[in-house]
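ok so i was messing around last nite and threw this chain in just to see what happens. nothing serious, just curious
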Amino acid sequence: MLSSVAIRSKPDHQSRMIDQLLFGEVCEIMTKKHNYWCRVRSPIDEMEGWCLSHQMYLLTAIEYEKYQLKCAFALDISQSAIGDNKHIPILLGSRLPHCDGISFKMPKESMRYSGQVYFPLQTPFKIEMLLKIARKYLYAPYLEGGRTPFGIDAGGYIQMVFRIFGMNLPRKIEQQSDEGEVLHFVAEGKAGDLAFFTDEDGKINHGGILLDNERIIHSFGMVRIDLLDHYGIFNKNLKIYTHRLRFLKRILPE
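result:
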């Protein structure tokens, strides 16, 4: 039970981090390898990679079924969970099973948690709440493969903000761009819509969340707010367009 676990492209500490598992998230073990490495797959987005097997806790089938009940998501950037002789930092977006708002249950113990939580299946969705969570990541440094407020990439940022509200989007930007309904003009955009951008070869390589049809929040160097128009993202500090707009997508229901 750790705050986060690195998922790497190869079973080697020097290989590229392609994803992270946060506290309380589950994965399927695909294969095991010597030197403590195992290949895992996320049931949420089917991302596969390698992690250290001794950083994982094995669940039985019965434990896994119970683990799905009354799940909440942590809303504080970082807040400790207190168990038997341990304090574990719980990061924004971590999953808390069997949560009653004061404590939650892991397979072998209950832990106290004094931070704010969100129950996606029990709380009516409000766009204002989604934008509040999106802003909590402001100034989080860009980190390839990251999904935490202490390091996050563009795809991880979009995925985490929506996942807290029970909407499971793919991990990769290019796969996220296949979701939702296309909007033809920037003027049609509204808060919570997604914008996707291309490189010089026309390949989707970046994305962000609209605050309105003139501003976007995204992870580029850090999570930041920039201007958006029909051409792309305009960075006022650099005084240049940093990304070329491909299209907008509407993920949220009307």
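not much to say yet. The mean pLDDT is 94.
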